[in-house]
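We modelled the chain as a single entity of 100 amino acids. Its sequence is:
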Amino acid sequence: KQELICELQADSHTNELLKIFYEFNPATNFANKSQRKAIDWLIENMGLEKSIRIIQYAIKIQGEKYSPVITTPIQLQNKLGELIVYAKKENNNKIGIIKI
């Protein structure tokens, strides 16, 4: 029973983060296993709250000069390092979006 509750909660968090991407990119496919795995990886490595802030930041900077193009969870996973470097260069880290 406990395992099922944890599984449902994890799935709920995954869907919550996918919805953030969906608002920016309506082509986001909630059923795509690779996209879901990328979200799960982010939550596992960054925690839920930090993952939300990272996604919101990645979306916010789209179109800015030199910002990495990130419109899907997989792109975020693959370009997280680029996003961190961009944040440091732009001194956006002062608001605590991404801390290393």
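As a brief sanity check on the tokenised model: The two ends are 36 Å apart (CA to CA). The helical segments are 2-24, 33-46, 48-60, 73-89.
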